[in-house]
Design brief:
about 290 residues; mainly beta; 21 strands; about 5% helix
Length: about 290
């Protein structure tokens, strides 16, 4: 495979090949004029240690040099409950992959694991914390450039959320889903779903019901951490009986509109029921 470009960083020469190659040897301007004394050096100069290169570059041959495979492509990050699943288009000739993560888009990235196939599940994430990934291909000790970046925010489990020091809950005392330690009428599980603080009394997370023409609109903020860790259903009716359920999907659909955001999505349910009054409630279960 021909060399299309090259760069030097410190003692590392990085070459970009025109195509994938399984070769174990790369030759640079190999010629009879080279005396072999400086076989570990490459110098882009007319003169070098008393030897004049006829082509402007000292000629030598690298033997048994690992050639990196092409970089992986189409990296996709799919969030789950307490984990993020990664998949990508594999690299020709690769024998493995380095998976790298950062909490900031653009890096710097740290290797968190390796994979033998074009898939990896990161189960070391913290629910509600955005993560950004790149993947590189490896072969015989050589590593490719990084893939495209892919980011995702994992959801959390209620137990993990309640156990986090930031929530201020005490295990076995006030951390149950039905407990309401701040007495604001939002049990812990609702605080989790609505992005509230379980030990700080507040009505700011209260859902809103408004008239819209001949119907009604019910709105609330759904925390990213609870998106996949809970089942949320909006129920409505003209009386406190005979509720009509509206399941809230991860990405919306039908009469449910979801505007993505961080750390919460905005959920709107358009209720096409005429009448002078309406009762609507949000039901959350683990």
């Amino acid at each position: 495979a021909g060399v299309t470009s090259g760069t030097v960083t410190g003692k590392i020469v990085r070459l970009q090949l025109a195509a994938a190659s399984s070769a174990a040897q790369i030759t640079y301007l190999k010629g009879s004029a080279w005396n072999g004394v400086h076989s570990n050096l490459l110098l882009a100069a007319d003169r070098f240690d008393g030897f004049t290169a006829t082509e402007g570059i000292a000629a030598l041959t690298f033997a048994d040099v690992p050639i990196a495979p092409p970089a992986p492509t189409v990296l996709i990050a799919t969030p789950g409950s307490g984990q993020i699943a990664l998949s990508w288009t594999g690299s020709p000739l690769a024998t493995g992959y380095n998976v790298k993560r950062s909490l900031t888009t653009g890096g710097p990235y740290a290797i968190i694991g390796t994979a033998g196939t074009a898939a990896y599940t990161d189960a070391t994430v913290v629910g509600g914390t955005p993560c950004y990934y790149v993947v590189s291909a490896t072969r015989s000790g050589a590593e490719s450039l990084d893939s495209n970046e892919a980011g995702a925010t994992p959801s959390s489990t209620y137990a993990a959320w309640a156990a986090a020091p930031a929530q201020g809950l005490t295990p076995g005392l006030n951390d149950a889903p039905t407990d309401d330690p701040d007495f604001d009428r939002f049990p812990n599980l609702l605080e989790f779903a609505l992005g509230g603080a379980p030990t700080v009394s507040s009505q700011s997370i209260q859902p809103v019901l408004t008239r819209d023409g001949g119907g009604w609109v019910f709105e609330y903020d759904r925390s990213d951490a609870s998106k996949l860790a809970t089942t949320q259903v909006v129920e409505y009716g003209s009386a406190l009986a005979g509720w009509t359920p509206v399941p809230i999907p991860p990405a919306g659909g039908g009469i449910v509109t979801i505007t993505p955001g961080s750390p919460s999505d905005r959920v709107k349910v358009a209720i096409p029921t005429p009448g002078p009054r309406m009762f609507v409630r949000l039901k959350v279960t683990e």
